[in-house]
TrEMBL record:
Coiled coil: none annotated. Residues 291-460 form the Glycoside hydrolase family 2 catalytic domain. The lineage of its organism: Bacteria, Pseudomonadati, Pseudomonadota, Betaproteobacteria, Burkholderiales. Keywords: Hydrolase. This is Glycoside hydrolase family 2. One of its GO terms (molecular function) is hydrolase activity, hydrolyzing O-glycosyl compounds. Residues 65-133 form the Glycosyl hydrolases family 2 sugar binding domain. InterPro entries: Beta-gal/glucu_dom_sf (IPR036156), Galactose-bd-like_sf (IPR008979), GH (IPR017853), GH2_Domain-Containing (IPR051913), Glyco_hydro_2_cat (IPR006103), Glyco_hydro_2_N (IPR006104). PANTHER family: BETA-GALACTOSIDASE, HYDROLASE.
Amino acid sequence: MEFGYPRPQLQRKQWQCLNGPWRFCWDDEGRYAQPADITEWPLQIQVPYPPEGAASGIGDRGFHKICWYERDVEIPPGNDRVILRFGAVDYLARVWVNGRLAAMHEGGHTPFSADITRMLSPDGRQRITVQVVDDPHELTKPRGKQDWQLEPHSIWYPRTTGIWQTVWFERVGRVHIDKVRWTPKVEGYMIGFEARIVGDTLDDDLSVEVELRHGERLLARDRYRVVQHEVDRFVVLSDPGIDDYRNELLWSPERPTLIDATVRLLQGDTVLDEFSSYTALRSVTILRDRFMLNGRPYTLRMVLDQGYWPETLLAAPNDAALRKDVELAKAMGFNGVRKHQKIEDPRYLYWADRLGLLVWEEMPSPYRFTRTAIKRLIREWTEAIDRDYSHPCVIVWVPFNESWGVPELTAVREHRHAVEALYHLTKTLDATRPVIGNDGWESSATDIIGIHDYDANLDHIRQRYGGETKTEQLFDRRRPGGRILTLDGYPHRGQPIMLTEFGGIRYIKKPEPGVKSTWGYSSVGDEEAFAQQYEQLLHTIIHTALFSGFCYTQFADTFQEANGLLTADRTPKIPLERVAAATKVSATHIPGVV
């Protein structure tokens, strides 16, 4: 159960992982209001695996609304500060340290922390208690693919309750840097750097030193005065001018060049805080009907990835499993993934940054439209953008999928306003990336038109999207999935058109334990038929000039969905080399497209 540093872009040396055995109990009747009320802990759980997963040691997928965790840990007091951090807890968490309430957080997919310095016992023995409230039937909270029925049905999967990402604490100075943010600007060959400083007293003589390196090569070493608790500057690099030399430092899936950073907070010449980070020179834009990477047209070859594992559900088994998923996607010829209805663990993004894999980040949906649901969605989506803004692998934000949570877009103006508002909010929080307001159909405010079409008949695909099809005809008459592609008042404005869900071919290489029945959007009975259907489908899509990118469904079998290119345990259904050959076949046939 090895996990790397949970915040890969702000890595300090003094930290301790708190994953492992914790005391655990269910509280279905809501009897306990605080840790002192609990007199018995009948169960033990392995954090960060959710209690519904077998790897947790519990494996209970019944309906439970409340659960509790507790652990004793050695944290000696000192002259510094101790920050307790949680990667993700689903859904509403309350945290006590030595019986004192330390933190509350709502939202199942984003991190939170608490300064617990003043709560520490002087003898060094500390007790951490966590209460989690996660109503399995509540449809107004962002829940993604977590089923509200007892048994997973259709496209929904077992629930994930409670702690499902790493818990840790770290020691920091009394004055320290709380947050960093990197913004590459390829056109000016510069990188924006932002830092927020917090602490007991903020002296006037504070400065931040930023050192950037590419391997052994020093790119910059700058020092900036802290003004009003923050630093906000552009680090300008020496621009070599000609593309051949420029390209050596640009990040892409084919050449994932990272720039290593060391950041120090100083008072005069005394170092108060120091950590390592990284960034990259990379731009993503839309130019007419093409997606642009680093100022050049780039064809997106993506695969839809649910981010589930059989024994651990939404939680990754370990850091190696996250790296392996990135490596497998690349080995199958894809240059990107669409993380579907999940805010993925930052360690996945770290490996995507380091190994070179593009990521579309998508907000998990609520399934009722209420004011409460929209408030919850906005709060958590804002936190997700803030957490992942600096990862070069993240290239597109997707706040809504297939009108989930806003089911009456054609008729109810409040639903349309919600999509438009989230689109503009996202563009406000991050002006550097494209945003898809609602992926799949019924598009309004969007930078890319995403189409979901699972028709297995290749002739239908050719007729619907082939060379004889005019775009106005596509948007006026074609309705894949029975839905209009754009809402009235939002005609196609020349944005890139991408087939962002298709395929879903069911082929059972080996039955998954505990799964009673499986399905896919189409089915084949043997390995060769599966390979041929994938090859023919990808050949058709790649040779459809209308599309500037695609996303195949899906990466791996996920519980009852047996439509993965891999089985649930990540065993290839057909040789990876054959998948890659089909995924990349004639990928450069469109003039001017990489």
